[in-house]
ABC-type polar-amino-acid transporter (Blastococcus xanthinilyticus), 251 residues
Amino acid sequence: MTSRSNGEPLVRLSGVNKWFGELHVLQDIDLDIAAGEVLVVIGPSGSGKSTLCRAINRLEPIEKGEITIDGERLPEEGKELARLRADVGMVFQSFNLFAHKTILENVTLGPTKVRKKSKSDAEKRARELLDRVGVSAQAEKYPAQLSGGQQQRVAIARALAMEPKVMLFDEPTSALDPEMINEVLDVMVGLAKDGMTMVVVTHEMGFARRAANRVVFMDGGRIVESAEPETFFTNPRSDRAKDFLSKILTH
């Protein structure tokens, strides 16, 4: 793999720009993410955080710039995009599980259809992953029978089943009741400790402090600041970050 052998970043964004009509939502984004790095993206609403996350697997096409994953440029569309996208796991605010399939079927669908794994191999791996995220007892149930926290942990297991090189999390706890948030964050902290490359858009500052290697602060479609968590939270350089932190850390 290119990223392992020559020190190249696993994910690289170069001069990335994105518009929604007149709105310039990503402005000249340059960002390198190393293999095994946990990058947490924070910032006010409308700062471009989710768009940045979604651009990394082309859920949002970009107008200018280039994104590479493990040395390969992200294609515009077609089979090559599908192949590269399979290397990028994604966990959304909403769980997006198939309501008419069991939990086990939800987790085995991608590996059997896309990765062409045998049903038995896919099921064995799915059960291991469901155990890892703490919902192995729910394998034969349907999504509606699970709590929101359990469904989100299944969504993480489903993404992991594709053996991605990088995992993207777009505000994965924002739709959850407060008591369910930690059970999802604990799974994510475990992934971070295991060396999974992760890009996490979140409002959970405790997670950022505990698990991130680096915090990126966005505002107005730009990366304003990028620093290690301790540095960022104790001594932010920009007035905009100071203002943002003073509002969220005092509550």
Remarks:
- The first strand starts at residue 11 and ends at 20.
